[in-house]
Amino acid sequence: MSDLLSRRLALLGERANLPLLTQCLHGIERECLRVDGNGQLALTPHSPALGSALTHSQITTDYSESLLEFITPAEKDPAVTLADLEKVHRFTVDKLGDELLWSPSMPCRLPGEEDIPIARYGTSSIGRLKYVYRRGLAVRYGKTMQCIAGIHYNYSLPESLWPLLKQAEGDPQTDRDYQSARYIAMIRNFRRYSWLLMYLFGAAPALDKSFLRGRPHDLQSLDADTLYLPYATSLRMSDLGYQNNAQAGLTPCYNSLDSYLSSLRQAVSTPYPPYADIGTKQNGEWVQLNTNVIQIENEYYSSIRPKRITYTGERPIQALASRGVQYVEVRCLDINPFLPLGIDLVEARFLDAFLLFCALQDSPPMAGDECRGATDNFQTVVKEGRRPGLELLRHGQPIGLKEWATDLLDRIDHTAALLDLALDTREHAETMAVQRARVENPDLTPSAQVLAELRERGESFTEFALRQSRAHAAYFRSEPLSAEDQERFESMARESLAEQARLEAEPDVDFDTFVAAYQASILGLISN
């Protein structure tokens, strides 16, 4: 263990400071496709019984009208976060009738590209902008890739923790700049070590062959309808859906908040010739917001993002530039198809220990070679992470995955122990034992369990996923919400629909003018 990590752990372990670690915040965003009772993509519109996808704070849609997204509040205890998420699921399942929530990350057998419905958000200017942005994603990447679902884990350390570390280390930066710098350092370590998350929690080693639409690939056939790789952990996070696009050169190494924001500013303001050839309109209809490398910041597909809660009308770049980093959003987590929520407390407790380790561990700037090496390690693990004897590169030198994983778990043990001490629990130590067992025996990983289930039952990917989806629906229906929670969600649905109606009743703004003003908000930020 490094001297710096030891000093930071000792400082936070002092009696006066230990309560800070009970103040970390956790939020989850879970995406999932709606399917009909036979496992086909639901082509019905987003149900008004769930509220407005534009204005509801907890139930919305992602890319497609059929791709739901559930959002929890930020809570101090991830157990409460998961309880919040379960209530959203129970309410939604009750409103879906015969439809189901698809259990894994990789999609069901999809209809033709033209028949995958893009999410709609009504007639207000912001609602139309959200729709056109998604049309742009279809033009750029195709609709199929946008139907992949995942789990995002939002995590922050308490604001009062950072000045404590800053003072102890004699750092001359302002509190805000120090906090941002430490979150960016945390992200660098996440980039170095997140291959471990893919090994431990990857749950997407197989997919329905229709997903590839006849494109060339290096996958193997498990049966007539299922493609897989024998040692894959997460085909979702592989390059299958992201081939040959403008983002290939957009790989911020997170050496400072300014350099990260500069990369994004350049991407949202630099035309990309193939997109310019398409243009923003066809036959007078908007097909993308602009012809730049990315239309808006959210189009950057990263495994983790620095975040700041935005004010109404404010863009993410503006919020980060003006007020710094507030939390991180982990975006690489697969939905575990064996779990009704796609994630459980064992995983959440490990994520907390892992992220705290990333925050406290030394994190020197990443040179280009290390940045590329981190990407290569990640891609190696998502495609062959369970291969016996697999080696990765650490500081340019080969090391066995099992050896490196064991070394990392040894170090993460210290942050897990500190969290257990602060929270008066053994749950972090218990999850560490679960993860050590997975490192020792790859057959215990979710990705191996998925393949074992397919082989033992003789099921295709789609048959397995549909069986799990039905089982999860039965689980959620087995215990209805309390009357109080039911009314709370009903009220949120009604209020969100009323809010959308209010937005749509405002005086019309010319949409071309609205989009131009939205684009200018970034251009103005660049000129400043």
UniProtKB/TrEMBL annotation:
<dbReference type="Pfam" id="PF04262">
    <property type="entry name" value="Glu_cys_ligase"/>
</dbReference>
<keyword id="KW-0436">Ligase</keyword>
<dbReference type="InterPro" id="IPR006334">
    <property type="entry name" value="Glut_cys_ligase"/>
</dbReference>
<keyword id="KW-0547">Nucleotide-binding</keyword>
<comment type="similarity">
    <text>Belongs to the glutamate--cysteine ligase type 1 family. Type 1 subfamily.</text>
</comment>
<keyword id="KW-0067">ATP-binding</keyword>
<dbReference type="InterPro" id="IPR014746">
    <property type="entry name" value="Gln_synth/guanido_kin_cat_dom"/>
</dbReference>
<protein>
    <recommendedName>
        <fullName>Glutamate--cysteine ligase</fullName>
        <ecNumber>6.3.2.2</ecNumber>
    </recommendedName>
</protein>
<dbReference type="InterPro" id="IPR007370">
    <property type="entry name" value="Glu_cys_ligase"/>
</dbReference>
<keyword id="KW-0317">Glutathione biosynthesis</keyword>
<comment type="pathway">
    <text>Sulfur metabolism; glutathione biosynthesis; glutathione from L-cysteine and L-glutamate: step 1/2.</text>
</comment>
<feature type="domain" description="Glutamate--cysteine ligase">
    <location>
        <begin position="10"/>
        <end position="381"/>
    </location>
</feature>
<dbReference type="GO" id="GO:0004357">
    <property type="term" value="F:glutamate-cysteine ligase activity"/>
</dbReference>
